[in-house]
Design goal:
- The protein has 323 residues and is an alpha/beta fold.
- The chain folds into two domains: 2-120 and 291-321, Quinone Oxidoreductase, Chain A, domain 1 (Alpha-Beta Complex), CATH 3.90.180.10; 123-260, Rossmann fold.
- The protein is 29% helix and 24% strand.
- It contains eleven helices and 15 strands.
- It has helices at 12-15, 42-48, 114-117, 122-133, 150-161, 173-181, 195-203, 219-226, 248-252, 270-285, 302-309, and strands at 2-5, 17-20, 30-39, 65-73, 85-89, 97-101, 105-107, 141-144, 165-170, 187-189, 208-213, 232-235, 257-260, 293-298, 317-321.
- Strands 3, 4, 5, 6, 7, 14 and 15 form a seven-stranded mixed sheet that branches. The protein has a six-stranded parallel sheet with strand order 10-9-8-11-12-13, sandwiched between helices.
- Strand 9, helix 6 and strand 10 form a beta-alpha-beta unit.
- Helix 4 (122-133) packs across helix 5 (150-161) and helix 4 (122-133) packs across helix 10.
- The N and C termini lie close together (10 Å).
- The mean pLDDT is 92.
- Pfam families: ADH_N, ADH_zinc_N.
């Protein structure tokens, strides 16, 4: 079978290639899945670069989520059937076939597109778990950057469903209109003069008690420019791949506190994760959750896919497609 692979850590577009590998066999509790579509997530690229929270043994096949078709069942698997379309988290998904724990897979209704299904777990689930842990009541305000990213859009959508008001920051003026076309308001572009005053005007002077940073680098300074004294900064991602910059004054004089959020070690109970996954499947089946793919690349072009994923202005994820 054809598979993406990297034998050393480094820039993804330089270290990624494709090769023929032996098709794996499912063990107890596992399922062999024929991959249809697998997204290129930022955490995938950080893992390949050796900059994520863990380092896999090399050589390694990247990819952490996909939609595919069940090919074979391992011993003891009773919740799935061969030929069933499934989505969920796994490892080594940038390959024509991959193994997954049956307990981590979710059957996908026919009404859900492959483009949405392949992104059903990682970003939407993270957004729901993050909202669960922010401790913000209906009517409260939060501010987030990367508001035009997958998680940013979902935070606005799911926050609105809970009555939470989400103020979004984007780095391009054009992205404000793009989000407005999706029904997402309260967005300000940081490349405009006077953007801080515009952002504060949107809140009407109400406290902004949580600030979610997905950028790293100068990202915290931007969300904290809008957040209230005593707010909590949540480090959710590091899209710029630069160290987090927070001035001592924010902590000493404004009472800002900082915490991190990592979906790989979720701060919610397993049974709650099951409930949230059920909500996501229902949302997708009802058409409430629709996630776009900008372009899908064959496994042979995995390095080009990694490069394209870093380009600004995308309206959806880049993905790897199976055979």
């Amino acid at each position: 079978m054809k598979s993406a692979v990297y034998a050393e850590f480094g820039s993804p577009e330089k270290v990624l290639s494709s090769e023929e590998r032996t098709r794996p066999q499912p063990g107890p509790g596992q399922v062999l899945v024929r991959m249809v579509l697998s997204p290129v997530h930022n955490h995938d690229l950080m893992t390949i670069a050796g900059q994520y929270g863990f380092k896999p043994e090399l050589p390694s096949v990247p990819g952490t989520e996909a939609v595919g078709v069940v090919e074979a069942l391992g011993e003891g698997v009773t919740n799935l059937q061969p030929g069933q379309r499934v989505a969920g988290g796994a490892s080594g998904t940038w390959a024509e076939f991959y193994l997954a724990d049956a307990a981590r897979l979710v059957p996908v209704p026919e009404s859900v597109s492959d483009e949405t299904a392949c992104q059903l777990v990682s970003m939407p689930l993270s957004a729901k778990m993050l909202l669960d842990t922010l401790d913000v009541s209906a009517g409260g305000w939060i501010v987030q950057n990367a508001a035009n990213g997958a998680v940013g859009k979902l935070m606005a959508q799911y926050g609105a469903e809970r009555g939470i008001k989400v103020l979004g920051l984007v780095r391009r003026t054009e992205a404000v209109a793009e989000l407005k076309a999706l029904g997402i308001d309260n967005v300000v572009a940081t490349d405009e003069d006077g953007w801080v005053e515009k952002a504060k005007a949107l809140t009407g002077g109400a406290p902004v008690i949580r600030a979610v940073d997905s950028l790293g680098g100068d990202g915290p300074a931007q969300v904290l420019a809008v957040a209230s004294d005593g707010a909590q900064l949540i480090s959710f991602g590091a899209m710029t791949q630069r160290p987090l910059k927070i001035s001592a004054g924010e902590l000493l004089f404004r009472g800002i506190t900082v915490k991190g959020f990592w979906g790989a070690k979720p701060p919610v109970k397993p049974e709650r994760i099951g409930e949230l996954l059920g909500e996501l499947v229902r949302d997708a089946a009802a058409g409430k959750l629709v996630m776009e793919i900008e372009k899908a690349y064959p496994i042979d072009e995995v390095a080009e896919a990694a490069r394209a994923s870093g380009e600004p202005g995308r309206k959806g994820k880049v993905a790897i497609r199976g055979s």
